[in-house]
Amino acid sequence: xxxxxxxxxxxxxxxxxxxxxxxxxxGRAWLRAVESSPDVELAGVVDLDPLVARxxxxxxxxxxxxxxxxxxxxxxxxAPDAVVNVTVPAAHLPVxxxxxxxxxxxxxxxxxxxTLPEALCLIAAAELSGQLFMVSQSRRYHPELAAFKxxxxxxxxxxxxxxxxxxxxxxxxxxxxxxxxxLLDMAIHPFDTARHLLDADPVSVYCQEYNPxxxxxxxxxxxxxxxxxxGGTRYLYNGSWCSPGLETSWxxxxxxxxxxxxxxxxxxxxxxxxxxxxxxxxxTADAVGDRxxxxxxxxxxxxxxxxxxxFTHALRTGTVPMGExxxxxxxxxxxxxAVLSAxxxxxxxxxxxxxxxxxxxxxxAGGEVRDVLAxxxxxxxxx
Length: 383
Fold this sequence. Notes:
The protein is α/β, with parallel strands linked by helices. It is built from 13 helices and 14 strands. The chain starts with 15 loop residues before the first strand and ends in an 8-residue tail after the last helix.
């Protein structure tokens, strides 16, 4: 099948019925998004603990909605139109494989899977099933990000994009024991945002990780990475999860420089631009140094509500959404490439990482999914 083809569900006037899988904190956030959306309705809730699933459904104001621990059973009992996968990353592969195998499209939380080879298996499974698998990169649905991207377009050829991310959260739990906590759990957000802002994909990366002496993380909680992107633009990420004081927003602080000026965004407020006088004289909307408001908000809404709205629209129209798995896997490849670079202290080519992941995926997959992987002419199924 084509890498951008999937079965649409033409509208009949009724909301899409979705099963939410995973009833932890994020699962409950998604249940609120489902409850507030006019485009979907809750068909059921699945969790490893059926009591947690029941409590989540009741807490979402849906006491009559089925809840349980077995996805296949609830699919049989409720006949949903789609699945929202909000499980922990280690469960993304089996849950998404199961849903696609049952003939259901999936909207999944990031990352697509716990590893890049597993994500490639999910691309193959989506192709095999003919169903949409979309990954929710919810940070793309920020009105000020849309404004920042529009301002970047006015700067001509772009040379460098930077992100500074400095926070000091005490999570407790798994993040504080991970080997690469910042890269594996958080960096995919800005990496994916960089691809979105530049309309470019990663070519190579050199990355260093380190852990300040006062860090409360077992793994390296600070990272500096330099990516070469298609077109020659460089993307620089500099971040830390153990930097108290003068913290950035959760979106980070951004700057982009081009031939006609620069723009910056603090991750929350409207972006700023300073353009060359020649650019301003050419009839741009704002004068040099003007600080303007956000561009019109994209039609989807903000955060996970935006992801859910675009997913629903894609299924109703057949329009390929942001986050479709063939495209999104390149954001995960940025993470995997940065981790490898940090481990080996060398520049890493993303195509090489994808090729290795493809070979590993062939070893993971079986049956028809493996056959699809073996048929690809590129390591990421044409992504």
